[in-house]
Amino acid sequence: MSDLEIRDDRTAGRLEAVGAGEVVGRIEYFVLDAPERALVPVHTIVEPAHEGKGIAGSLASELYAVARREGVVVAPLCPYVVKWAERHPDQAPAADPELLRAAKEWLVAHPGRF
Are 26 and 70 in contact (CB under 8 A)? Predict the structure, then answer.
Protein backbone atom coordinates (compact mmCIF):
# COMPACT_ATOMS: atom_id res chain seq x y z
CA MET A 1 0.00 0.00 0.00
CA SER A 2 1.77 3.11 -1.17
CA ASP A 3 -0.29 5.68 0.72
CA LEU A 4 -0.04 3.97 4.09
CA GLU A 5 0.12 6.16 7.19
CA ILE A 6 1.15 4.63 10.50
CA ARG A 7 -0.01 6.35 13.66
CA ASP A 8 0.58 5.56 17.30
CA ASP A 9 -2.51 5.66 19.51
CA ARG A 10 -0.62 5.26 22.78
CA THR A 11 -3.72 5.71 24.93
CA ALA A 12 -5.45 2.77 23.23
CA GLY A 13 -2.23 0.76 22.91
CA ARG A 14 -2.42 0.49 19.14
CA LEU A 15 -0.05 1.23 16.32
CA GLU A 16 -2.42 1.63 13.37
CA ALA A 17 -1.86 1.41 9.64
CA VAL A 18 -4.28 3.71 7.83
CA GLY A 19 -4.87 3.57 4.09
CA ALA A 20 -7.55 5.37 2.11
CA GLY A 21 -9.03 6.73 5.35
CA GLU A 22 -9.53 3.38 7.08
CA VAL A 23 -7.53 1.33 9.56
CA VAL A 24 -6.25 -1.64 7.58
CA GLY A 25 -3.97 -3.14 10.23
CA ARG A 26 -2.69 -2.69 13.76
CA ILE A 27 -0.32 -3.90 16.40
CA GLU A 28 -1.86 -4.00 19.86
CA TYR A 29 0.69 -3.36 22.60
CA PHE A 30 1.23 -2.16 26.13
CA VAL A 31 3.99 -0.21 27.83
CA LEU A 32 5.88 -2.10 30.52
CA ASP A 33 7.53 0.06 33.18
CA ALA A 34 9.59 -2.48 35.13
CA PRO A 35 12.14 -3.99 35.23
CA GLU A 36 12.74 -1.43 32.49
CA ARG A 37 10.51 0.55 30.17
CA ALA A 38 9.54 -1.41 27.07
CA LEU A 39 6.94 -1.57 24.32
CA VAL A 40 5.30 -5.01 24.37
CA PRO A 41 3.44 -6.01 21.19
CA VAL A 42 0.82 -8.67 21.83
CA HIS A 43 -1.18 -8.98 18.58
CA THR A 44 -0.68 -8.00 14.94
CA ILE A 45 -3.86 -7.82 12.90
CA VAL A 46 -4.27 -7.00 9.21
CA GLU A 47 -7.75 -6.80 7.72
CA PRO A 48 -8.29 -9.76 5.34
CA ALA A 49 -8.78 -7.55 2.26
CA HIS A 50 -5.33 -6.03 2.86
CA GLU A 51 -3.25 -9.12 3.65
CA GLY A 52 -0.12 -9.78 1.63
CA LYS A 53 0.68 -6.09 1.08
CA GLY A 54 3.49 -5.76 3.62
CA ILE A 55 1.34 -3.94 6.17
CA ALA A 56 2.29 -6.16 9.12
CA GLY A 57 5.98 -5.74 8.33
CA SER A 58 5.58 -1.96 8.06
CA LEU A 59 3.87 -1.93 11.45
CA ALA A 60 6.61 -4.04 13.07
CA SER A 61 9.32 -1.85 11.56
CA GLU A 62 7.62 1.31 12.83
CA LEU A 63 7.15 -0.18 16.32
CA TYR A 64 10.91 -0.69 16.59
CA ALA A 65 11.51 2.81 15.17
CA VAL A 66 9.21 4.29 17.83
CA ALA A 67 11.11 2.38 20.52
CA ARG A 68 14.45 3.69 19.20
CA ARG A 69 13.16 7.27 19.15
CA GLU A 70 11.93 6.92 22.74
CA GLY A 71 15.09 5.16 23.94
CA VAL A 72 13.23 2.03 25.05
CA VAL A 73 13.30 -1.61 24.00
CA VAL A 74 10.70 -3.88 22.45
CA ALA A 75 9.77 -7.08 24.29
CA PRO A 76 7.72 -8.94 21.68
CA LEU A 77 5.07 -11.41 22.76
CA CYS A 78 3.25 -11.30 19.41
CA PRO A 79 4.33 -14.30 17.30
CA TYR A 80 4.42 -12.21 14.12
CA VAL A 81 6.66 -9.56 15.67
CA VAL A 82 8.94 -12.26 17.13
CA LYS A 83 9.42 -13.77 13.65
CA TRP A 84 9.84 -10.34 12.05
CA ALA A 85 12.51 -9.45 14.62
CA GLU A 86 14.38 -12.69 13.93
CA ARG A 87 14.47 -11.78 10.21
CA HIS A 88 15.58 -8.17 10.92
CA PRO A 89 18.16 -8.32 13.73
CA ASP A 90 19.72 -5.08 12.50
CA GLN A 91 16.46 -3.22 13.24
CA ALA A 92 15.19 -5.36 16.11
CA PRO A 93 17.64 -6.11 18.90
CA ALA A 94 16.78 -9.15 21.00
CA ALA A 95 14.99 -8.47 24.27
CA ASP A 96 16.45 -9.58 27.57
CA PRO A 97 14.82 -12.85 28.74
CA GLU A 98 14.05 -11.27 32.14
CA LEU A 99 12.17 -8.48 30.38
CA LEU A 100 10.16 -11.01 28.35
CA ARG A 101 9.31 -12.87 31.55
CA ALA A 102 8.13 -9.64 33.19
CA ALA A 103 6.02 -8.83 30.10
CA LYS A 104 4.38 -12.26 30.24
CA GLU A 105 3.66 -11.81 33.94
CA TRP A 106 2.07 -8.41 33.25
CA LEU A 107 -0.14 -9.97 30.59
CA VAL A 108 -1.27 -12.73 32.97
CA ALA A 109 -2.03 -10.13 35.65
CA HIS A 110 -4.21 -8.14 33.19
CA PRO A 111 -6.36 -10.84 31.55
CA GLY A 112 -9.02 -8.51 30.19
CA ARG A 113 -6.61 -6.18 28.42
CA PHE A 114 -6.12 -8.25 25.24
Answer: no
